[in-house]
Amino acid sequence: MSVIAAVLIVFATIVAMEGVAWASHKYVMHGFAWAWHRDHHEPHGNVLEKNDLFALVGAAMSIAMFALGSPWIMGEGAWPPATWIGLGILAYGVIYTLVHDGLVHQRYFRWVPRSGYARRLVQAHRLHHATVGKEGGVSFGFVFARDPARLKAELKAQREAGIAVVRDSAGA
User: What stretches pass through the bilayer (predicted)?
Assistant: First the structure.
């Protein structure tokens, strides 16, 4: 496999993982796996959250792809592109950790962006946390953020329709 093809697979996987993360966040974390995700939406003084278990799921996906691409594990049945998909999943996990846990929730460092896309990410995710409970909500992605003004309008519409309970400080 050429270097260009490998790089393209890694990049495409990173982009695709944002879609996987969005769908997982909206339908799994705010659905049947709310028991793991709930503490992420509630104040607590713990260093770790049950929500952090989802990182292990992502790691397992990456490891599985590395295994599928490995001739040492799979022998003649190895599928080389799987190695690059595994690397893309790993890269997305690093990006997620730095952006979501680091920048947005400031678990690893303290920096409040005053402008630009980093500020937009923080605003969008804070609007995601504006709802009480698992129902309703906006901005389920982690790296791509929609316009906060549109997200506020969507939250307001959800509140008025009775779909979501929005905290008073959300500005919706």
Answer: 53-74, 81-99
